[in-house]
Every structure is written in structure tokens, then in C-alpha cells.
Amino acid sequence: MTEGVVASVDPGATAPPSAGRGRRGRRARRLGAMTVRLLLTLLGLLTLLFFLVRLSGDPAGVLAGPSATPQQLEAVRAGLGLDEPLLAQYAAFLGDVVRLDFGTSVFSGESALGTALGALPATLVLLVTTMLVSVAVGIPCGVLLDRGGRVTRAVVGTSMTLAQAVPTFVLGILLIYLFAVRLGWLPAFGSGTAATLVMPTLALATFAIARTARMVAAELEQVEDQDFLRTAAAKGASTRRVLWRHALPNAFPAVAAALVVEISYLISGAVVVEVLFAYDGIGKELVDAIFARDYPVVQACVFVIGVFVVVVNVVGDGLLRALDPRIARARA
Amino acid sequence: MRRRGIDLRLWVPLGVLVLTIVACFVGPMLLGPEAGQQALGERLAPPAWLPGAIDGRPLGTDAFGRDMLTRTLEGGQVSLQVGFGAATGAVLVGMVLGLVAGYWGGWCDRVIMAGADIWLAFPFLVIALAAVAVVGSDIPVLIVLLTLGGWVLPTRVTRTIALRVRSEDYVVAAAGAGASDLYLVRRHVLPQVLPANLVVWSFTVGALVVIEGALSFLGLGVKPPTASWGNIIADGTPYLQTAWWIVAWPALMIVVTVICANALGNALRGRWNAGADVIDKEVVP
């Protein structure tokens, strides 16, 4: 897992680090290269979207929607500059992206970027609670998976296997059936209150919990008979102290790295969960816009999600290196 | 593990998968076309063991009175075609790219691996949603799309193994004795790459069946009335309170398929040691 993050960063690493430059400079250069690379990818993604919309038949028809009158079609065509050559359109599109101008929503008439950004905070809340839960539950589960008795290990292991095999949307429906339909404890859908956050978080976190647990168990197994643990035990530290103070911290970098790498999986999951629970985040906004054929909003949502992923990757990579110097050393 | 009798950990999941495939593709023919038709008089009938069940509708009916057994099996045709097809495509693409990157190295390697890293960093479902929205969602489109969703893992595994095999003494010796690249790849690299990729293929099937499910659950998979496990579940969600069986059967099928695909992967990995460590490192279980 760590390898994923480390590998995902560094075109500069293959070149020999120039002599005389400090670690600071190298780090800045590496982060810069990584940012540029990811932003270029983002641009590529938007470009792909641009050409797909243009090439799949009449874009004005797509953009204006199936119920548009011929006059409306003409207006859209002129408004978008669709009578110009494709490359000129593409240049204009790139200019708009750089100026963060994604046009206005076909339906609400509001700024597409504003619509996408407005939906982002709710998704961030969901992602943060999911990460907290997956760590808070995953680490103890991992300890049980490694240190528990035979029965505990079997039970936890089986639940983790199940947790990884049940798709998020199936799990979400199961939760709705159980807690909303049968027990009536929680609202089945909506957003804004704490109660509406519980089931989406559970649905999204389950897979991450299982991954965290497996990772923690694997790390614990790896350090099991290392000298420093024996030394700690010989000094008179309790079993519990040896586990929590000495053994477990070894797993933290891997867990943290997984959280960064998995941000893209988590966002994919969040899209499904938000639609299922009618939770007003950017994922639901995206799917709604797709069904409404509101392409400016679709492009803005993809852009915002992409930028968010880039930021998490770049910042996360920096944090990981601060957290675990071994990563930086391994690549140097 | 395999000394005595048959290895259940391998043959049980394999058997269940084969059975599922046969049932999905042969079953609807045996049940006849009539069962899949709408019958508004038979809406929302429960499974056979509950009061109010209708004869010949063992798993109940959906909101249009269609037989759930037939619908679930028909839905499986799409989900399995897309899942297995795309996993196969992904592994083939991944093996070619991985061999190029790992065996020839150089700038090919750098470009391919950079592409893989970048591709992984972006949320695939978001890309897939946007693409499906624009180009539509026939089965071939979905297969191509999900091939794009799964190519990174086999590429990485193949590359790592190819890189390792290439520097083994016996390969270096063979190359020194004048063996051609093609010979070396065919004779020494492929035999180690293939089993590892079969393991990866198995895991990928599970992952892609889930993604296909998610896409069609969101309404962006195959178009109704064509069934797929994901869109049956989506159709059944409003009836959760009164007719849980609409959601239950396709959901169960997805879970069983994924568990079996993962179990098969694990069993194969235990069986052939070639590349097991590489896979362990790449697939966080």
C-alpha cells in the first residue's frame, strides 16, 4: 500500500538528486512535479469529457436537453460558439477552465462551479466521519485479528471477509431495511442532521474498516518477534503497553498511507452512498446533473472532485513523509 | 494441502461460480419466456414459502409481476458478461503492458507506470459515470469501460514479476547463449506471469461485478427493461418495506459471486507460489 503512494509521486526520483541541494529543495521539487503531473491529468480528464460531449452527436442537442425547441437549440449553439471550428472551441474551453469559468447550470442558471462547490462540504463531512470510524473500529479489529483467541480470530476474520464482499449499495440497503424500515431508529434518507450521517458513514466505512484491520494485523505479525518488542517486555512493560506503545505504532504509517491512496475509492463509494441516502453532496449533484443532461455542472463536479483528489494526494504525501522518514529514505 | 483428496477451498468457489454462470445462461431458457413478462395481476407476490405466494413463482414477483427467479438469472447474464469480459480484457491489457514495462524497461516502463499511478489516483466511478452519460451504456461499452477500470493491477503484478525473472541467472545465461527476446518471454517469463495473472483475474472479476452493480444501481448501466443485478436492486428499493425479495435475490447473487471470486483467487494464490508475494503486496486483501 505504502508502495502505491510512494510510487505515485515521483518522476524526479529516477534522476540523481543534484548535489549541494538541500532536502528542502528536493522535497519542494518533488511536490511540485507531483502537483503538475496530477493537474495535467485532471486537464486530460476534462479534455476527454469535452471531446466526448462534442463527438457524441449534436452537442447543442445534448446541452439543451431533449425537449428544446429549434430556437432554443440555435441560441445554445450561438451561445456556446458551436459554429466555430473544434480546435477554436477547445482553446476557448481551456481558457474557461483556467479562469475557472464552467458556465452556468442549464436548469438553475446559477454558476456551475458554484453549484459543485456548494455541494462539496457535505461530502467532506461524510468522508471525514468515514475515515474516523474506519480507523477507530479498524485498528481494534486488526488487533483482535492478530492477538485474539481462535474463536475471536475466526469471527473477526469472517466478518472482515464479508465486509469486503458486500458492495456498498447492498450494505446501504441492508442498513435502511434494518434501521429505518424495521427498527425505525434512523431516517432512511436526507441530509443536514447528525442522524442522517450515521447510515451513510456506516455503509461507506465498512469496507475501509476491513482493509484497515487486515493491514494492522499484517503489520503486527511482521514486528511480532523483533528485538525491540522483546526488550520492552524484558524491561517489564505490560503486554498491553508493549502492544499499544511499541508494536502498534508500526502500523500507523501504512494505515495513514491507505487513507490517502483510498481517497479515490472512497469518493466513488460516496457517490453511490449519497444517491442511495439522498444525501446532498457532490456525488449526488453529479449524478443528478448527469440525468438532467446538465453538462456544465457535470464538468464542474468532475473538476472539483479531481482537484480535491489532487490536493489530498499532494498534502497527504507530504504528511506521510513527515510521519515516516523511512518512506523518504527508501526512495532517496 | 492438496495431498489427500480434492482441495475444497479451490473447487467449492469454482463450482459455485460455474453453477451460477450455467444457471444464469441456461435457466431462463428452461423457465420459458412467459415468466419474464409483465403480469400486472401478479404484482409483488412473495416467495413460495410465504402466504400469498403464486404457483410457479418460487422467488416471488416484482412490481410488474415478473418472475423474480427469471429476472435474477437474466440480470446475471449482463452482470457476469460484463464482469468476466472486462476482467479478461483487463488482464490481457495488463499482461501486455506489464511485459513491455518490465521486460524492456526504459522509457516505456516509465510512461506505463506513471500512467498507472495517475489512473489509480482518480476516482474511477466518477470517470465512468461521466463517460456513460455521454457515450451510452451497451454491454460492449461497459466491458471496455470496466477494462479501463481494472488494468492497473495486472499491469503492476506482471511488471514486477517480469522484472524479477529477467534478472534471474538462468535467464541471463539463456540470453547470453543467444536466446531471442521472444523466446525468453515465452519460455521463462510467461510461465511465471500467467498463474499470477489468473489469480489477479479472479480478484478482478469480483471487483468489476461490484462496479457494474454500482453503475446499473445508479441507473447508468444497461437500459431497462434489460435486467442487471444492479438495476433490479434499484427498482426494488422503493418496495423495501413490502417486498424485500426484489432486492434480496440479486443482492445475494452479487455477494455470492464476489465471495467466490475472491475465495478462488486466494485458493489459486495458495496453490501456485509464482508471484504470490507480488500479489500480496499489490492487492491489499
From TrEMBL, chain A:
The keyword Cytoplasm does not apply. It holds the Pfam family BPD_transp_1_N. Residues 120-316 form the ABC transmembrane type-1 domain. InterPro entries: BPD_transp_1_N, MetI-like, MetI-like_sf. It is found in: Cell membrane. Residues 11-20 have a biased composition (Low complexity). The chain crosses the membrane at residues 31-53, 124-145, 157-179, 185-210, 251-277, 297-320. Residues 1-26 are annotated as: Disordered. Its main location: membrane. PROSITE patterns: ABC_TM1 (PS50928). It is a multi-pass membrane protein. Keywords: Cell membrane, Membrane, Transmembrane, Transmembrane helix, Transport. The keyword Transcription does not apply. Belongs to the binding-protein-dependent transport system permease family. This is ABC transporter permease.
UniProtKB/TrEMBL annotation, chain B:
Keywords: Cell membrane, Membrane, Transmembrane, Transmembrane helix, Transport. GO terms for biological process: transmembrane transport. CDD domains: TM_PBP2. Residues 76-265 form the ABC transmembrane type-1 domain. InterPro entries: BP-dependent_transpt_permease (IPR050366), MetI-like (IPR000515), MetI-like_sf (IPR035906). GO terms for cellular component: plasma membrane. It is found in: Cell membrane. Pfam families: BPD_transp_1 (PF00528). It is a multi-pass membrane protein. The chain crosses the membrane at residues 12-31, 78-104, 111-133, 139-157, 196-222, 242-264. Belongs to the binding-protein-dependent transport system permease family. This is ABC transporter permease.
